[in-house]
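Q: Joint fold for the lines below.
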Amino acid sequence: MTDQTTQPDNPAKPDYKTTLNLPKTSFPMKANLAQAEPATLARWQAQGMYQQIAAARADAPKFVFHDGPPYANGSIHVGHLLNKVLKDLVVRTALMEGRACHYVPGWDCHGLPIEHRVMTGLVESGKAAKLETLSDEHRRMAIRRECAAYATKFIKTQAEQMKRLLTLADYDHPYFTMQAEYESGTLEVFACLLEKGYVFRQLKPVHWSIANRTALAEAELEYEDRVDPSVYVDFEAADAAKVAIAFDFECECTPCFMIWTTTPWTLPANLAIAVHPRQKYALVEMDGSLTIVAAEMLEKLALVVGATTVVKKAEADGSALVGLEYRHPFCDRTSRIVAAEYVTMEDGTGLVHTAPGHGDDDYRTGLREGLPIYCPVRDDGTFDETVPAWLQGKIVWDANTLVVDHLRTSGHLVHALQFTHSYPHDWRSRTPVIFRATEQWFIGVDKPSTKSSAGAASSLRAMALDAVNNTIKFVPEWGRNRLRGMVENRPDWCISRQRSWGLPIPALRQADGTVFMTPASVRAVAVCVAAKGSDAWFTLSPAELLAAYDAATDADAPKSLDIASLTKMHDIFDVWFEAGSSWNSVLRQRNLGFPSALYLEGSDQHRGWFQLSLLPALGVTGKPPFDALVTHGFLVDKDGRKMSKSLGNALEVETLLKDYGAEVARWWVSGVAYDGDIRIDLDYFKVAGESYRKVRNTLRFLLSNLFDAPAWTESEATALALASPSQSLCGWLMGELATLETEVRAGYAAYDFRRAHLAIFDFCNETLSAVFCAAAKDRLYCDAADSPRRRATQATMRVAMEVLCRLLAPILPHTAEEAWKALRGEGAPLLFTQSHVGLVVGRDAGWVEVMSACASVKKALEVAKELGIDNALDAAVEIPDPHGTLAAFLPELADICGVSRVTLGGKASTVTVTDLRAQPKCDRSWRRDATVRQRADGGMLSDRDALAVGV
RNA sequence: GCGCCAGUAGCUCAGCUGGCUAGAGCACGCCCCUGAUAAGGGCGAGGUCGAAGGUUCGAGUCCUUUCUGGCGCACCA
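A: Joint structure:
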C-alpha cells in the first residue's frame, strides 16, 4: 500500500490524533528492578521506613509473628530466599490488614558447624598448636572469641542479603542466640524446667576419644579402615526347659544363643540379646552342640564358622524367644532375650549382642527394657573394678584379645576371624574412638511435672500431643501427623554437649563430686550472664558467677554448700535448646506478645525448631509458643532432584537478583505451591518475569489514562465509581474489583499466597487487560475529556489502582509503592500505613451471559475473517437474546465485543456477522457506527466524535 | 528399612464429599491491531490423569500393590 491509496483526495483532512485523550504517564514500562530496588532500599533505610510504619501502627492490634533463626554460616541460598520471602508476605499482609507487626529477625550463632570451621581455620593457620599451650579455660575463651567473630561476620552478610530481598523487619534490633540477654532468657527457661522437675542427668553412650578424654560429635569423626576380631560366641540358655517350650522340641543338652560381634571388649557390658520379633529362628544341632540362630542366616553361618554337621531341629518366631534367659559367658549374671526391630539378616547370626552402655541402639533398647546403662570402661579407656579380675585395669584394645582367648578357653567361642571394617577415629588424635556411656543432661519427655496439679497428664509428651491434636493449626494439615509422629516417638532430649562454642549449662561440682545446680542457682547465673554474656562462665569464679545466689533462701540448696570449693562443669547446651527458647528470649523478654500467631519454616523443622520450641514452652508456660505452624517444602531442581553444590544444580541468589530482581523472585515465591517439593529453575523466573511485566503494564495503562483525571479524594473517586449502574462496564468492573479484594485477602489470611497471586494475575490479565481496558479505550480516548462517561471510567480506574496497590503491596512492595506514588504523587502517605479499601459491590447476574455472548462473538469474528473482515471494527454483529437478558447491557456490548455495532435478537440462534466495510468509517474513532457522516471541518465523524471535537 | 508428602497437557498448577465430551495460566501455532507499542487483543492445537490390579452402573477422584522423587527417622551390632 502507498500513501496515495490511504490518504486519498482530501489533503485538508484534519489530523484527529491530537484531539484524542491519549494516555500519558511517567510510570515506566520497564521496571529495571536490578537497579531500581537497591535505590528504593536505600531510600527506605534513610527515611526509617520500618520505624515510620511501627509508629503509624503503634496503637493497632498486634499481629505477633516470630522469626526462626537461620544459622549464621555462609551466604543465603535459595532456600532462605523462599523462607524469608514467605515470612515477609506474612508480615506485610498483616500490616495491610491494619495490624501492628513487630518482626524481629534472628540468627542462631552457637554450635558445632561454626566451631568446626573455626577450628579448621586455626589448624590451617598454625594457631591451633599455640592454643594447646594455653590453660583449658583460656583455650576455650580463645576459640569462643574466634567463633563469635565468625558468626558476627555472617550475620552481617546475611542481614544485607535478606534486606536485599526487600524484607521488612527490625534489622536495627535483631536477636542472636549469643546475645547476653538472649542467653539469660534461655537460662530462665532452663531454670523453670529444672524447677518443674523435667531436667535430669543420666548416662548415655557417646563417641569417646580415649586420647583426648572427651566426647566427640559426629562431625569430629573421621572413618578409617581398621582390623578387628570378628567373633561368634555361644551364650548358654539359663533354662533349657523354657527353650524347649519355645521351640516345642525336647532338648537333650543346654542350648546356646549364638551372637556375633566385632567389638569383643564390649562383651563384659552385655546385658541382653536382641532378636527380631517377626523373623524365624532355628534350633540347630551344629557339630554336636545345640545352637539357636536366625533360620535365614543358618546356611551362610555354617559356612563362615566351618561347621561340619548342621541339623535343624525346630523353628520358632523371634517373638517366642523374647523373655528367655541366658548366662553371661564370663560374668556372673543372667540376662534375657529382648525384641528389636533393627535386627537385620545381613550379617551375624540374627541375635544381637546388646550392651546399653556401648551403643546407641543398645542404649535405647536398654532404656525401653529397663536395663542399667552399664559402662565398665573409664574415661581413660580402662576397665573398672566391676568386671572380672582378669580384665580390671586393662585397656579396651588389649581386652579384645583377652576376651577372645578367655572365650576360647571356656568353650564359648564358636569362631573367630580377623575383620576389616570402616571405624570412626578422633579427627584430631587420629586414634580410634569407642562408644562409651557418659553422664549427660536430659529433658524428660515422659516425666510428670513435680510442680503441677495436673497430675500424670503433665508430662511434656502428653502436653505436646494434646496441643498437636487439639489446639495447634497446621498449614498444610498433614503437618499435624508429622509432628505427632515425632512427638510420639522421640526419646528424652539430651541437651548437653561437650564443646566450647555455646551456652554453658551452669552446673557446678561440689568437693564430694556431687553436682550442684538448682533453679535458684541457674537464675543467679542468668543474672550474671545477662550482664556479662556467657563468656562469664569461663572467666569468672563460681563465687562471682553466683553473686546473686543466696543458699539461705534456696530450699533446694544442698545442706553443706561451700561455694568456695565448687568447680565449674563444662557442658554446653544443645543449640536447639537455645533456639527453642526464642519465644522467651525474644517474644516475652521484649514484650512483643506471646504466643506467636505462627511459626513458618521448612518441613525439616518439625523435627527441629517446631518441636524443640514446643516442648520448653509447654514446660514453662503450659502453652504452645505458636497458634499455627506453616510449613513449606524443599526446593528441588526442574527434574525434581534436590539442590546441592555437588550436583551443580544449585541456583545462586545473587544471579537471580542480578538477572531478575527481588520482586520477580518475590512474585515467583508468592505463586508457588509451597506444600511439598518446589521446583526451581532459571526458566521459572523468566516466566515469573513475564507475568510480573503483565501486571506492571496493566497498572501502567490505568495510570496513563488518569493523567487528566480531576484531583479526586479517594472517597470522591469511589463514590463516583460506585454511581455507575451495575449493567455498565464500570459497574461490572467495580463488582469484579470487590470480588478480587475479598478473594485476595482471604488467600492472604489463610497463608495461601498462591491463591492471592493467581487472583491478582487473572484480574490484571483477563478482567482488566483483555476485557475492561480493551473495552474502555474508545471512551477514554474519544469521548470529550470531561464527559461524564469518561470521568466515571477514570474514577473506576482510580479505584482499581487504589485497590491493586494495596493488594500487591505485600508481594511487590517496591513496584506497588512506585505505582502508588505515580497515582497519589510524591507527597502520598506511606503505602504500608494504609489498609485495604474494603469494597462492597453487588454484581448483576446478567454479566455471565454477556461474557459468554461475547465469547461467541469472538468465535464468529474468527470465522468472518475468511470473508475478509479482519478488523472487528469493520463488523456489526447480531446476538441472539433468547432470555432478554442482554437488552439491559446493549449500550456496552459493542465496546465489550470490540465491534462497531451490536443488535440483539433476530431469528438466528447464533451470532450473525455483517460486513460494514462499505459503511463510512469515523476518521477519529475508526468505528463504523450509523452516525458517521461528513462534518463541517471536512472529516468523517460520528456524532460522539463530532461533539468531542466541537464541529 | 520405617513414617510423611507429591506424581493431571512442554512448564506451573485447579479438579470439593466418585457422575455431563478432564480445566486455567504460561509457552507454542495462526491471525488482528499499530492511539498501552521492546506493548495490546482474538482463535487454535496439545493430556494413556506415574504404572498395575480391585471396589462400583460409573474413578483423576476410594482401596491394594508398585515405580519415581522429596523430607524426616533409623541402621551398618
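Q: Anything notable?
A: The CA atoms of residues 76 and 158 of chain A lie 6 Å apart. The longest helix of chain A spans residues 753-782.
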